[in-house]
Design a protein that fits this description.
single chain, mainly alpha, two-stranded antiparallel sheet, 4 strands
Length: 295
């Protein structure tokens, strides 16, 4: 995990970040008044939320990421993305935080000073994000040789890591993302809404490319894709199986020799992939009281 020297991980920093994460005071006087980070990132959904027309990326294992948001608008560390969230997304002026009698105590404990700044707020949130670590799913227990996968789960694991299922190139285990951007054939034509990485870089090669999301707790994080177009894991797999659309920037990974943009999996194989993906659900993560609201 990337931990900058200027923001070491401490219990006090995580406690402050957790409080800020769940506190709508962060949005006072901004465009999202009355909302907190947790408004769109609910623990029982692996710190995302079910929504129509957009897929909210889950706050899980982001301590291993260097690109953030679907189009990678922010590159760097968690401190960088949290600075963006505080200053640009929430447009926080911190007035309600500063007038709260408890916060100076929390900031003093975390940073040795009662002075509340945007940077320290972002640093505290970054520390809490590093605590949002999921690594105790059935699959993790299998890797630790604590449990066995069932027959369908095991076959799904094999498919996931084979050229037949072909998930492993982008969803690299164990973090289940390559932290890169791909055009996976969702569309054949593009506007600003579905151009993805191109909107950030302006490079024609980036048209239609979006960040590879983590598959950790993917059973809980519907809807899927950047625009939330798929409601179920079965729909997602069917896209890769038969729904890939050709375009100039389509990732070569999406093409198969002798096949026209599809995996050609049978019904059993598709069900086995779903069975494996469900082994990535970490119930201890979504039920951990230390990650829930402190209020």
């Amino acid at each position: 995990m990337l931990i900058p020297e200027e923001n070491p991980l401490t219990e006090e920093g995580v406690a402050l970040g957790r409080r800020l994460y769940y506190d709508p005071k962060l949005s006072v006087n901004g465009p999202l008044t009355g909302h907190s980070c947790s408004s769109c990132h609910q623990q029982e959904k692996s710190f995302t939320v079910s929504s129509r027309g957009v897929s909210v990326l889950p706050h899980v294992n982001l301590g291993w990421n260097t690109h953030f948001l679907w189009d990678g608008k922010i590159t760097g560390t968690l401190e960088d993305i949290m600075q963006f969230e505080v200053e640009d997304f929430f447009m926080a002026d911190l007035s309600a935080i500063k007038t709260d009698a408890d916060y100076p105590v929390y900031f003093k404990s975390a940073f040795g000073t009662t002075e509340i700044t945007t940077e320290r707020t972002a640093y505290a949130l970054a520390q809490f994000f590093r605590a949002l670590t999921s690594g105790n799913s059935k699959f993790d227990k299998f890797l630790r040789r604590e449990v066995m996968l069932g027959p369908d789960e095991m076959q799904g694991f094999v498919l996931f890591n084979s050229e037949k299922g072909d998930c492993f190139h982008c969803h690299i285990l164990p973090v289940t993302t390559d932290n890169l951007f791909h055009n996976i054939g969702l569309d054949a034509e593009f506007t600003a809404a579905n151009s993805g990485r191109f909107n950030i870089t302006g490079l024609s090669a980036d048209i239609g490319l979006f960040k590879t999301p983590t598959l950790r707790n993917v059973e809980l994080t519907a809807p899927y894709m950047h625009d939330g177009r798929f409601a179920t894991l079965e729909e997602v797999i069917e896209h890769y199986n038969s729904g890939v659309k050709s375009s100039p920037t389509l990732d070569p990974i999406m093409t198969k020799p002798g096949k026209e943009f599809g995996l050609e999996l049978n019904e059993m194989e598709k069900a086995q992939l779903v069975a494996f993906l469900k082994t990535l659900t970490d119930y201890s993560f979504i039920e951990d009281e230390k990650l829930g609201s402190p209020f």
